[in-house]
Structures are given as C-alpha cells and as structure tokens.
Please model this.
Amino acid sequence: MNLRMNVKNYPHLISGFALTAALMGANAVNLLFNAYLGRVVTPEEFGIIALINTFMYVSGMFYNALGAAALFEVSRLEGLLNSPAAASFVSSLTSQVLKVNVAAAAIWAILVPWTSAFFHIDNPLILYLFTPVLIFYPLVFIGRSYLQGKLFFALTGFLVLLEPVIKLLSAFFLIELNLHPQIYNAIYISAFLTAIITILIAWYYKPNSQTQKTYSFPHKFFWAAFLTGVSSISFLAIDMVLVKHYLPPAEAGQYAFLALLGKIIYFLGSLLNIFTITIISRETGNNKNTKVSFYLLFAGSLTLCAIGVIALGVFGQYFIPLIFGNRADSIIPYALPYVSSIALFTLGSIIVTYHLARKNYLFPFLSLGLSSLLTIGILIFNRNLTQIVYVLFTVGTIYILGLLLAHFYKEHLTPKKIAVDSIEKKLEPIL
Model:
C-alpha cells in the first residue's frame, strides 16, 4: 500500500482535523454547560436536567448504534458503488426510522403519567416534551453518518459542536429571562434545532438522482454496535452505581473524581476512533487491505492514551489539583492504576470497532463478556476504594489482552483454523 500523501487527500485530512477539534470543543462546551447551571439553578432544577440527560444517554445507546450502522453502510456503498446508492439507502432508512420513532413516542406519551409519578415529577409536561425528541433526534445520527460517510468531516464536526452550543445559549437566555423552572427546555431546544439543521444540510448534499434499488438496513451490524455500547457502560457507568452502593459517601465521592479523570482519558483516546468505521468500511468496499489504516489509527490512539496516563497518572500530583483543586489530593495515589485501566479499555474498544467495521461480530460479544467481569469483580471485592480500583485495573488488563489475542488469532487464521468463523456463524441468528 502506498502511504505517500496525495494532494487530493489534503482536504479530507484538514476536515478530519476539524472534526477532531469539534469533538474536543463539544466536550468543553458540555462541561461549561454543567458548570454554569450548577451555579445558577436550584438542586431540584439541576436534578430535572440530570434526569433528562439520563434519558438522552440511555436512548443514545440505540441512536449511536443506529448512527454507526448507517455510517458503515454509507461508507461501504460510497467505496463499493456510488453516491446515489448511499443517498437511496439513507432516504429509505430515514423513512423506516421515522415510523419506529412515532411508535416509540406514542408509547412514551402513554407512559408519562406513570413515569412522572415514579420520578416524583409534579409537572408531566417536562416528560411530554421528550416526545418530539424521540421522533426527530435519531435523524441527527443518520444525517451526521451520511455526511461523515461521504468524508464531509468538517460539516460533521460543525453539527457535533452545534448541539452543545445551542444548549448553552438556550440555557443562558432562559436564565436571563428569569425562566429558571423551564431551564430543562435548553436540552429539548438544542436537540430539536440540531435535528432540523442536520436534516436540511444532509438533504442539500443529497444527489439529485438516486438509484431505484432498495438497500437493506445492516441489522446484524446495528445489534453488534449496540452490544459494544453496552460494554462501555460497564467501565463508564455501572462501576459508579456499584461504588455508591458499597462504599461510604466520602470514598464514593473520591471515586467520582476518579471517574471524571477516566472520562478525560476515554475521550482523549477515542478521538481517532470516530474515523475507524468510515475508513475501514470504505477500504473494505474498495477491496483494499485495511490493516495499515487500523494500525495507524491504533498507534495514534495509543499515543493519545499514553499522553493522558502520563499527565494524569504519572504526574497526577501536579495536574490533578489544577483540575479539581486541593479537594482531589486524596485520589492521587489511585490515579495511575485507574487511568491506566480506562486507557486499556479505550484501546480495546478501538479493536472492537475495527472488527465491527469488518463485520467480525464475535468481537462485540467478546467485549461484552470481558467487560462484565468488572461488575462481577466489584460484587466480590468492594471493601474499600483500593480494592475497587485494582479490580478495574485487573479487568482492564484482561480486557485488552483477550481482545489482542482474538485480534491476532483472527488475522492469522488459516483454512484449517475455522473455530472463530464457526462461532461467528453461530452468532448470526442471534444478531
């Protein structure tokens, strides 16, 4: 494979940097949004915002899988056939998803009275307003995937950054208009406006002519991507729930600081992973060797993870107080093993994404199985913060080693060694 940079690739390289910068900016704006509201709204109002964000996070598990499946198919069709084929697929998918969205929104609306009582919400309108989000917000992920699959990275980055910016500005104006009780609408406004703008931009870049052929939705890929997202929850969410259950409030608070460090490592190490499905799917569609691209992406992610571990782990005594102040001094002894474990999980997720793009569906199942060891470990070893941190480190090590062994075994598979392929064939009916 010729690795020399061709001039025609420069626009894609520049827009790729723009997408990476937009991801960083979006995370920074989201952090600013939460910090701003934490200072200007009441705890009750902030609790409503946290609840709606939880709904967005849970539904996002499905939407991210939907976006990944759309990105996979668009990239494959762009590399294998042509732009009209990808546009036809997206048009068909949008129509199907809208029907599912309307049904889901109707069920949600029916359940609102019960949901409001369960969460002790006096004003059901707060939850009824989530109904339009269920209808239109999934289209954001389809539109962004279509643009990214066509290598419009800069436009994709604009849409990624647009949503948190609208949310922050909406919150600011609601506060300025003394509408504190309606501050939750900032989330709804950003989701709805981002959906409308994404649809308009994607429609603008859709070719005038489309093929009449119908392209089926990659259901196996969707469910495999969903399982990959469930694996992430074990390392990034479930541990926090178990810690709050088993540890006293002081130690649970210390772990919350560690969890924030972990999210920094995960975000930093995953910056390049957003390109994995796009690049690997296009190269697969063009019948190219995908190994070089994967190892370049993996090496870049390894470098980013190493930077994070060195800064927050090795030299944590200098950088952690800059982030959290002196209150976080107590977590410094745990920082290195904790951020190292999150870095190992992040690198493992890149391996899973690569094989997902190649439709090797064994890896999402393997990821889910290995990540479940964290829950089992914390259920057994939970006497103090030290035990839990080292459970995380042990499982992170097992996770990356297991995926690396599966990766190299799969890559060096010979006709006589068909065990992995046989397992994947058995898994296909499940997916």
